[in-house]
Amino acid sequence: MQNKIKEIEEQIALAVKEVKSSRNLQEIKMRFLGKTGVISSLMKNLRDVAPEERPSMGKLLNALRQWSEEKFDAIEERLKDAELKKKIAEEKIDVTMPGKVRENGSYHPNTLIRNELVSVFAGMGFEIFEGPEIENDYYNFTALNTPADHPARDMQDTFYISDKFLLRTQTSAGQIRVMENKKPPIKILSPGKVYRSDDDATHSPMFSQMEGLVVDRGITLCDLKGMLDEFARKIFGESVKTRLRPSYFPFTEPSVEVDVSCFECGGKGCRLCKGTGWIEVLGAGMVNRHVLEGCNVDPDIYSGFAFGMGIERIAMLKYGINNMKLLFEGDTRFLKQFRG
Ligand code: DAH
What we know:
alpha+beta; BirA Bifunctional Protein, domain 2; 9 strands; 41% helix; binds 3,4-dihydroxyphenylalanine
């Protein structure tokens, strides 16, 4: 027994010498002093020692236990101290380090233009209506005076989902939804995404449009022209003028294409207006009476005008962006330039 005690003492001294962390020390401590540890089991073995030797062995064992407890405590204190120092050193803050810059986000140019358009038209009393992007063939075409065999369907390369459903090719579909649900006077603005199978520097399979519709008694082409002048001045600059050119859309009669005088050169002719002094910005016209009839709006009492523009196109013109892809790639080097 005495030898065993000696041996354990040496084992503890050795183990303690190699201890690496306070956690490791805890493990060693449990191994010797724990309930089922080496010293405890030796205590139990005391029963088998000859009775006359028992008191002195007991004494030795107690001394061993006390000695090892003190040793462990002392080492623990030393380790904890070292660990704390290390932690403090590691967590030291270098106040001379440059700060982490958290960059602010910015509105996408499309959103900027959309908000600007909405605020210009809201100022004229327009309300917002947002229709669904997955549209019924009827709303996107048929009700807009473009029945199944109409050649104007070929003006737009359509993504069909089924015979009946498609991704809307124009926000004009919203005109019908509004007229079916609301009696004149109607004055709505309908922004949203549209889809066409088209892809080059000025076309994207998904883009955004802004539609406008006004229906009331006595609405004329003059009202359209007056409103467009106001819109052009607010968006492109006070000195900008508009002109209407005859065009064709199935849902308007007459139909016009609207140009604004070039805000870059003032109409003299430059690269932006391709030397013409004018830039095409939108399509418009007086709502075709077939469209009104289809929505149960009496064309002998009411008339209206409609217009539709591409938001990306307006953004590209206004900010001098030459490739539409830049508006869809989300490159922060591009987007940063629009930080207000
Ligand atoms: N929907 C037409 C297009 O996408 C644009 C348009 C033209 C809308 C004339 C109108 C309009 O409301 O009156 O090409």
